Amino acid sequence: MEIDRHQKHSSKAGVKSVSARTYIIRTLTANDVTFWGADAFVSVALALFVVTYIDGASVLNVGVALMIHRVVGAFAAIPIGRWFDKNKGYLDEVWGLSIACMLGGFTYILLSFSTAIWQLYVAMFFMGIFSVINLASWRILFYSNINSEQFGQTVGMYQTLYSLGIGLFMVIGGFVGEEFGYDEVLMLGGLFMVFGSVLPILIRGYFRK
């Protein structure tokens, strides 16, 4: 189904039916809760994993790693946004969202095997890029498909589900870390992200090239 890129905030957004828009919004919400829930899941144990499993690492190294994540994301945000703008249609956002989730998940899985500080820094470098791709593509897809007459309600429902989902992921992450080990938290969080990468593919048929 067609979506006009110049009507990103239109109530119709180029999608032909209300049911289609509803399906897209629900699928994107599930994807966002899965990706950022998995990220929160990992964040519960990340510092403990680093100081426990990586030789010579300290909390300072965790701070540097998280700074790398944010700084890389800051510099990558505008080029990535421009790249999405250059491509007609929304399939680039759909595939960008799916690939970012998948690669982000694999990054956390690989990080669970790391034993050196430089490996932590490299992982956070790439997570900064994948997170920005996720944010840019998801926001474009989500906000372009909201019915303008129900904008506030839709955003409110999303935020409710997002907050509850993140909270649940965090407490489960804490439980897994305490019972099975911090490396298992990273492994499982990565698997959650990889699972979430399937969800955007489910809506690709609603968008033209």
UniProtKB/TrEMBL annotation:
Q: What Gene3D superfamilies does the entry give?
A: MFS general substrate transporter like domains
Keywords for the protein's UniProt record, in alphabetical order: Membrane, Transmembrane, Transmembrane helix
Coiled-coil residue spans? none
Q: Where are the transmembrane segments?
A: 33-54, 60-82, 94-114, 120-143, 155-176, 188-207
* Name of this protein: Major facilitator superfamily (MFS) profile domain-containing protein
Whether Transmembrane counts among this entry's keywords is: yes
Which molecular function terms from Gene Ontology are attached? transmembrane transporter activity
Highest taxon above the source species = Bacteria
